[in-house]
Design brief:
globular, DUF1918, mainly beta, DUF1918 domain-containing protein, 5-stranded antiparallel β-sheet
Length: about 60
C-alpha cells in the first residue's frame, strides 16, 4: 500500500450494519509512501494508522 498526503484512507467494516470509515491522510511516516499514516477521520479524530487488509487508499484529485 502506498499513499500521499491528501489521499483518502477507507477502512471497510466487517459488519453489515456498519458503514466504511473514511479519513484524509495528513502525514505519511513510512518509506516510499508506505504505512504508518496519520489520518484525520471524518468524525474529527486524528490518529496513527497501520492499515489492515480491509483498508484501501483513494488517491486525491491532484
Amino acid at each position: 500500500m502506498k499513499a500521499q498526503v491528501g489521499d483518502s484512507l477507507v477502512a471497510e467494516s466487517n459488519r453489515v450494519d456498519k458503514t466504511p470509515r473514511q479519513g484524509q491522510i495528513v502525514e505519511v511516516r513510512g518509506e516510499d509512501g508506505g504505512p504508518p499514516y496519520v489520518v484525520k477521520w471524518s468524525d474529527g479524530h486524528e490518529g496513527l494508522v497501520y492499515p489492515g487488509a480491509d483498508a484501501h487508499v483513494v488517491p486525491a484529485q491532484h
